[in-house]
Design goal:
CATH superfamily of the largest domain: Fumarylacetoacetase-like, C-terminal domain
Mean pLDDT: 94
Order of helices and strands: EEEHHHHEEEHEEEEEEEHHEEEHEHEE
CATH class of the largest domain: Alpha Beta
Helix content: 10-25%
Number of strands: 19
Distance between the termini: 55 Å
Strand content: 25-35%
CATH topology of the largest domain: Fumarylacetoacetate hydrolase, domain 2
Structural class: alpha+beta
Radius of gyration: 19 Å
Number of domains: 2
Amino acid sequence: MGFRLANVADRAVLVEGDEYFDVAELSDELSAELGDGRLGPDPMQAIAAPGVLADLSAALRSIGRVPTGSIRDVVLGPPVPRPQKVFAIGLNYDAHAKENGRDPSTSPVVFTKFPSCLVGPTHDVEMRGDGCDYEVELVVVIGRGGKDIAPERAWDHVVGVMAGQDISDRPAQMAATPPHFSLGKSFDTFGPTGPVLVSTDLLADRDDLRVTTAVNGEVRQDGRTSDMIFDVPTLISFLSHITTLCTGDLIFTGTPEGVGVAQGRFLADGDVITTTIEGIGTMTNRCVRVSDAMRFGS
């Protein structure tokens, strides 16, 4: 039985339609049935207990319960607010590699985003330059951690998936040789995620999801995760052979073609980024020019 997990005021909540239910309160209410499976309010504790979340979600469907509130009336935070590690994969779609003048890599191109860049699905993107870019990505959330994970077992280590934007300050990214991938993509607010964490059993096909980015209503990116060069199991296995994956670790799995840098169309103050992934939902993030970042060589 699947679940949709969100973050309201740093509290884990289960989402059903437009309504949400506080996990800790629901867990207390069902403590007799759950036994030792009671959960507190911390979203990081919740993602470590997918079985309990599934039980709570099933209880919502089987017995009518009064919701805590409507998600229309609250501001959602990042479903996974404090991951230990945030990986990102570059050039993982053939057409995206080609629009950047690159041949497809024979090995995953991996960089990191600092966890401090993560924000919720409606948070403003705060820009500090004129060369900021968008990149829609499926974000995989590790549930059960592990080392040397075989590809055929990789999905068993995933608690769920989210939508993500890998926002990039291209001048900062390309200011040095080799490029500052991690720095250029880790400005504060450069990691919108959400709107919810969806367990993969609620997806029609976890390996083939439509992903889109629109800017001010104009669709700029439209791809499918089945077009990844390195699929989710391959990425999980590859990373786990280098470092132990921990509960809550995130993997931004790459973006399809249509990014701004390839078209000379960067984000501007007031632009609205709409990110949608099939079966997961939509994020809407407004771009706000807040200051100028320090630049060298200019």
